Amino acid sequence: MRETDVKQRAFAMPLTNPAYPPGPYRFVDREYLIITYRTDPAKLRAVVPEPLEVDEREALVKYEFIRMPDSNGFGDYTESGQVIPVCFRGRKGGYTHCMFLNDEGPIAGGRELWGFPKKLAQPTLRTEIDTLIGTLDYGPLRVATGTMGYKHREADLTKVKAALSEPNFLLKIIPHVDGSPRICELVQYRLEDVVLKGAWTGPAALALTPHALAPVAELPVLEIISAVHVRADLTLGLGTVVHDYLRQQARGSIRAGERALVF
Predict the structure, then answer these.
(1) Which active-site residues does the annotation give?
(2) 34: closest CA among 206, 234, 227?
(3) pTM for this structure?
(4) Dihedrals φ, ψ of 8, to 5°?
(5) Pairing of strands 240-244, 181-189
(6) Which site in 31, 61, 119, 263 is 20 to 30 Å from 215, CA atoms measured?
(7) What EC numbers are recorded for this enzyme (predicted)?
(8) What is the pLDDT of residues 112-148, one digit of tens each?
């Protein structure tokens, strides 16, 4: 294969059979169970990277179970993880702290394109008679269980759609061949072309179990604040870099050198 062929074909690994296709990535009938809870502010502060800011007075976490039965290029899969409400330069949004899912394509694509912190596990989201149930298993062990009364009350669709439209932030880390960081960036992305098909709320509960490799319980549940069940079609927009940690580090080194010359 010629070098020009490599450059033309290079999109994702493996070169001759990428783990995922180019976008756009459209999701149909995407279903969420989002349980918002209050946690320990010190533990929250310890996992959110600057320059993102958290509201320590509220110290909120959104635990999400997401069912994706129809997605372009990624197929049919389920996801679960924690999103932390943050503020970046005066804009409110969400920082994705961890994600667990059961499909290789979106694990590879999510990590390589956007910087989603995705790991392989077995989440589920289903309706059992009158209860919406989300679970997360890592290997044979259950690490998260969320429940909500099924469609008890309609949620405010305007507020739900506004929340889905907020920016989302990711910490993208790609190592160099020597193990040092080659890319270390804060990435912003948005959900686009959202068609909200319904949203409901109801009583909810969330149980998190400690696990060494799926440490969702390290942000403990102190109080359930709210829960929402959402169905929507949407497109996962590609990201933009809003902060480059390595560039900032390089500039800091230059400034330190300049100071050394002065003094």
Answers:
(1) 118
(2) 227
(3) 0.92
(4) -70, -35
(5) antiparallel
(6) 31
(7) 4.1.1.4
(8) 999 999 999 999 999 999 999 999 999 999 999 999 9
